[in-house]
Automatic annotation (TrEMBL):
<protein>
    <submittedName>
        <fullName>DNA-binding response regulator</fullName>
    </submittedName>
</protein>
<feature type="domain" description="Response regulatory">
    <location>
        <begin position="3"/>
        <end position="120"/>
    </location>
</feature>
<feature type="domain" description="HTH luxR-type">
    <location>
        <begin position="136"/>
        <end position="201"/>
    </location>
</feature>
<dbReference type="InterPro" id="IPR001789">
    <property type="entry name" value="Sig_transdc_resp-reg_receiver"/>
</dbReference>
<dbReference type="InterPro" id="IPR016032">
    <property type="entry name" value="Sig_transdc_resp-reg_C-effctor"/>
</dbReference>
<dbReference type="GO" id="GO:0006355">
    <property type="term" value="P:regulation of DNA-templated transcription"/>
</dbReference>
<feature type="modified residue" description="4-aspartylphosphate">
    <location>
        <position position="54"/>
    </location>
</feature>
<keyword id="KW-0238">DNA-binding</keyword>
<dbReference type="InterPro" id="IPR039420">
    <property type="entry name" value="WalR-like"/>
</dbReference>
<keyword id="KW-0804">Transcription</keyword>
<dbReference type="GO" id="GO:0003677">
    <property type="term" value="F:DNA binding"/>
</dbReference>
<dbReference type="InterPro" id="IPR000792">
    <property type="entry name" value="Tscrpt_reg_LuxR_C"/>
</dbReference>
<dbReference type="InterPro" id="IPR011006">
    <property type="entry name" value="CheY-like_superfamily"/>
</dbReference>
<dbReference type="Pfam" id="PF00072">
    <property type="entry name" value="Response_reg"/>
</dbReference>
<dbReference type="Pfam" id="PF00196">
    <property type="entry name" value="GerE"/>
</dbReference>
<dbReference type="InterPro" id="IPR058245">
    <property type="entry name" value="NreC/VraR/RcsB-like_REC"/>
</dbReference>
<keyword id="KW-0805">Transcription regulation</keyword>
Amino acid sequence: MVRVLVVDDHPVVRDGLIGVLGAADGIEVVGEAAGGHEAVDLVGQRDPDVVLMDLRMADGSGVEAIRRLRERDRRRPRVLVLTTYDTDRDIRGAMQAGADGYLLKDVRSADLVRAVRDLADGRPVLVPAALAALTRRGTDPVLSDREAGVLRLVADGLTNRAIATRLGIGEATVKTHLLHVYTKLEVTDRASAVRRAWEQGLV
């Protein structure tokens, strides 16, 4: 029996998903949550095998809930994202956070049931848009090798001077590379640049 927790901030959507999954053989819906914070708490109480997770909810991002579930010390459920969003940024963000599968809400009921079973058995579940997003850079900004290298060192906590020494370039050059990174990623500081690049799979 596959134990499923349904997470979506729209009651009508939750009811529909519970109806579809609850009627399927070998699947038991063990709980529902209206947001990511509630979902993380319920996972500890209900011990689901699969969490069906929306990405954008009233209490914040499903991505953060996925990340928190991945960090659990105890058995971690598999997370299947079910959302209306199919941009590269959304897909990469969810998969980088630790999602195990990605589906869109226009999926047929029979395919959703099959996906839950497949994921519970350890088989990957990705819509074509997700596969494409993970194998291309698409329209996301592309960092040069040097820019990506500088940003990785920033992520490691190095100062501009330390980065310059490590790479054998001038400190002014490091600053120039970072300005290019900020422009491409549309951010204004080091921490935001690292986070944005990680979400988009650029470093």
